[in-house]
Amino acid sequence: MFTYIVRRCFAAIPVMIVVGVFVFLLIHLTPGDPADILADEDATPAEIEQLRESLGLDKPLHTQFLIWSGNIATGDLGTSLLVSKPVTTLMAQRIEPTIFLAITTLTFAVFLGVPLGVMAAWKQGTWWDHAIMIFAVLGFSVPGFWLGFMFVSKFAVDWTIVPAQGFVSIREGFGTFLHHMILPTITLGSSYMALITRITRATVVEVLKEDYIRTAYAKGLPPMKVLFRHALQNSSIPIVTVIGIGFALLINGVVVIETVFNIPGMGNLTIEAVLDRDYPVVQGVILVFSGIYVLVNLVVDLSYSIFDPRVRH
Amino acid sequence: MSTAAVNEMEFESAEAAVLPLHRRIVEFVRRNPNLSLGLLMVAIIIFVAIFAPWIAAKDPAELNVVTGRLKPPSEEYWFGSDRFGRDVFARAIFGGRISLTVGITVAALAVFIGLMVGLLSGYVRQIDAWLMRIMDGLMAIPGLLLAIGFIALLPAGIETVIIALTIPEIPRVARLVRGVVVVTREITYVEAAVAAGAGTARVIFKHIMPNTFAPLIVQATFVCASAMLSEAALSFLGAGTPPEIPSWGTMMADGRSYLSSATWIILFPGLFLAATVLSVNLIGDGLRDLLDPRFAKEV
Lengths: 313, 299
What we know:
The complex is a heterodimer of chains A (313) and B (299). Chain A is mostly helical. Chain A folds into two domains: 2-73, no CATH class; 94-312, MetI-like fold, CATH 1.10.3720. Helix content of chain A is 76%, strand content 0%. Chain A has helices at 2-29, 34-38, 45-54, 61-73, 87-122, 127-141, 144-158, 174-207, 211-218, 223-234, 236-245, 247-260, 266-275, 279-307. Chain A is globular. Chain B has helices at residues 3-18, 21-31, 33-50, 52-55, 88-123, 125-139, 143-151, 158-166, 170-185, 188-195, 200-208, 213-237, 248-255, 264-291, 293-296. Chain B has two domains: 1-31, no CATH class; 42-291, MetI-like fold (Orthogonal Bundle), CATH 1.10.3720. With 299 residues, chain B is mainly alpha-helical. Chain B is flat.
């Protein structure tokens, strides 16, 4: 078991190295002089030269990479070009709303998507199944941010039952926090939930054909117990895998949905940085989000052994 | 396969051949409802986008700041007008051009580059591990963020959006192609071709590549759908299509400040985008059922 965990953890390292190289090279792969791209449009040649020096862009590429990765290893993601603060400080100020939004969205998508998928599989071929699947295809096709605006226009503007935007910290009361989170969570979670519903249905449909399901029914177990205890548990590996892969949907969505609802989180920071061409911040955000994504999928990998003891060996 | 089954199949195909065209179309639609609906909708959307100047009564850029600002849907402005008095209907119809161009170009580019990387990786064992590690790393960066990384560096424009959205899609295509190649490579007919003296290029392109087409077509539709959604999201954020070009994303960005007073500015482009993405997804689902019956029961 221990060697399994260690082996999995080590497998994530080369992936992170490749991510790091990409993020580093991004600016060198694009045509043009990096210092020129990063500088203000009306910067003088002397200012550009100064920027080049302060970012270390005058050194050879491999030296730059070593310095850059060395800094990252010590937790230094560089300094914002715009506000002259460390990138890590900027992120720390913005991380809380994003973490909470991710938690509520993940909960919403999993605890609604999985039962819906099981339901569709159980009622395969009936109008329940069709309705749930149409719902899932729509979840993939409707742009999240547009859905958010439609929700706001109905529930926040017309009916005023939820706030239209903003974020309230959980420390200021769980009720107000949740109240502000309802619309962003549903908006961000719709495509993620659709993905989970589809894969759950597909896997459970296959598992329901197995002999042990027939046996479970035959010995008189109630259908809910057969579905959630026998069918779902044996479908769990593909489902958690998709929850892990689909986490990218959540990260992509955060960038857009935080803008829609004016939530001062990491996604919002990303967009501000892109529009201001504050490249060190963009780099740092990509790196941190990718790291989280790799970590989530590592946890998913490790969780296989909980669902299926055979994986441990 | 039993003789009876073969006879039945022959019988079926013979029957299909004598059916008149309209009966065959009805039969196809009955068997592939998703695919047919998706194809019909996409055909209409493409038609409307191409003939936009003749369908829209107004010029999408025509301003009417004096008397035509923020008018609700009416006989004059079918979908209402925006803050400059521009016709939302005309803009929504012209906006389809951007979405379709970006969606189709990104799908074509990602499939072509991914196909080349996948073939190379699947057939040339020496570089396989390296190429796949690079693809793994690219896949670990959430797509929209990687696109944003490029957009922050490249000059604003549709070309930039296309490049930025293509790159994150390449690894998925490459992995898919590699998977098919690794399996096909071991099949006896490939061995036979090699034994008969076929060169590497001939083996790859003539004997192995055709096996990747069916899954690639399906993948291309999903790439197209996701590229259209991402383009709209980027344009909405102000990091995609330049604001002066009418695209569904820029229109929605425009309408943001008027959400409570002029919902139609956001409502209609979003509906058009959702309908387009939905029909492309329906085509993808339908094609997967049609081309690969093994998957039909799955997702």
